[in-house]
């Protein structure tokens, strides 16, 4: 079972530049959460802060009962073993085969004999569909395969928490669909706590239990997916619909009057032609694929989804009461 991460009042700056402030959220143990936000709002900085690579100025990050912002480097090293991190480009060593790349954390952090290393590496390569590619160099394979190799490497120490930094960047839509299924299947299999940073709204609608959004140096919202997906908050709506009208500008924030006018036009459909009065219907949740055993948590999700997305039965038309034949006496 993964562990909960509890973030309270977290603030991170570089010099005078505040990246985000007073961020509080709880990543529930074993659940999948997604963090969204326009470019430069500090999503990668957030991941690096969670894993203790960057120090916040204020606030706490409690993992397995310890506030990691207060730990010395030596103790932090132990806590980091709870984490697997999938970096944007897979962060593989270019001169090493995939096998050696994936074996690297085991050789660095454990005393496993080589036959045990081999067993674990092949098990993880199998999980991400890379059996047969052991001898390939990262430069010889596609971007999607590099992501999967990075994921296998993130898995070898059996992490309780996995952080994914834009796992879908640079992948075609079909590979993104496969990767999303792999993430959901993995979550069902290993039950770790997942946090995914992504710009892919379709993935954000399908995959997580919880969604958060960073904007204007703050966490605008964080909560169960249905709360975000049906939210009326203009920033959330703009981001989820990927449209220009709203508070998020090209480079910086827009002024309030312009935002108001854009949203008013949008409400009447003046600028898009169709208006956007009602929220989009809830996207069905992506479930573990066939052959993946569903632990109770996923079984409960599957049952809820089946109920939510069952086609509504049309009520039987009421029948007119039969007219009694009236006969003249
Ligand atoms: N080590 C650092 N020193 C100084 N500034 C930094 C450092 N790391 C990140 N930043 C700044 O923090 C801000 C947030 O960067 P970050 O990469 O976290 O954004 P992001 O939301 O992940 O963006 P994107 O979606 O484009 O990947 C940027 O302005 C960046 O220049």
From TrEMBL:
Q: Which Gene3D superfamilies match?
A: P-loop containing nucleotide triphosphate hydrolases (3.40.50.300)
**Keyword annotations:** ATP-binding, Nucleotide-binding, Transport
Basic and acidic residues bias spans: 302-329
Give this protein's Gene Ontology molecular function annotations. ATP binding; ATP hydrolysis activity
- What InterPro entries does the record point to? AAA+_ATPase, ABC_transporter-like_ATP-bd, ABC_transporter-like_CS, P-loop_NTPase
**Disordered: where is this region?**
268-329
Q: Which CDD domains match?
A: ABC_Org_Solvent_Resistant (cd03261)
Keyword field contains Nucleotide-binding: yes
Going by the entry's taxonomy, the superkingdom of the source organism is recorded as Bacteria
Domain named ABC transporter: residues: 5-241
Q: What is this protein called?
A: ABC transporter ATP-binding protein
